[in-house]
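Note to self: user wants both folds in one dump. Writing first protein now.
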Amino acid sequence: MEYQAETAPPNPWPDYVAFITTGSALPAGAIAFRALLRERRRKLPLYGLFWTALTTLARRDICARCPYYGEYCSTLFGKITALMWPRSDKPLARQGFYWDLVLLPVIFIYPVPEIWRGSKRLFAAYLATWALFLSAMYGLACRRCPLEACPVPR
């Protein structure tokens, strides 16, 4: 089923939401990357693989099927996905969201030992950046989301 601009529901997210939610995730990723680079470099390839799966494969199963494909949405993935994947004819399904629900906690937990070992202040900053990201996602994005397929409660 191909979504047409005329039949897609109105976009519930102002453009700034995508920048706030995505921007709030970047410091946590930078802290984790720095800690893994300093404390345990051999874990970096797997960490990179988790991020690659979240930013590419998960987007194929969520964003490419979304009625807001190619628009600013809850994150910048709405725009970025249009550069990576063509719009999918498959319907948006709850199973696609499991990518995010599995990968985000893995991405959060995987570098924790190295961040903790490196600096307790950096660990506190890491927790704070994740709290900021989750608050921004839920407060600005998830609460506005009309997608029935998403398992996150609103």
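First done. Writing the second protein, which came from a different request thread.
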Amino acid sequence: MNKTMRLLSSAAVMAALGTAGCENMTAGENALLAAGLAGAATGIALGTTGVPASSTIPIALGAAAGAGALGYGVSKMQVNRDQRMFAEQRGQTLVAQAYERGAKNIPRYILVDTIAEKPTTGRPVMIFDTASGKVASNRLYYVNAAPGPYGFVEAPPGMLRGQ
């Protein structure tokens, strides 16, 4: 019985890690999912080994808080599906329009505008790969550079190193 419960709790932890980065969920939803699964897995694992409830509950709550904070932090660094799709469509449109207007040498990586969940200072942009026609990363950047004559600017090399 104890080995089965440990296996189930391990599976719950793996599920929490696997789903903590779901792209269709907000950062808060990811945090709640990770916290719930990690707290349950820890509580089950400790409860089946005979640890008293007076110790199990605070430890499980601590595990839930830690997993929730980590899930929230990781999710905030990644973009969601809508942001990625908007940036990809915008990049494809801008590149097509630039070629129509006579542009010859479009840089391989450009910054294209996207949408931001919580606007801050600067424009929310993503790196777009003009060769593949897709976004080059799942990171969102905030820049103060104005768009160039074709509606985009070249991505600085420093941004590409962090990918």
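Dump finished. Worth passing along: The helical segments are 2-19, 27-48, 53-77, 81-100, 157-161.
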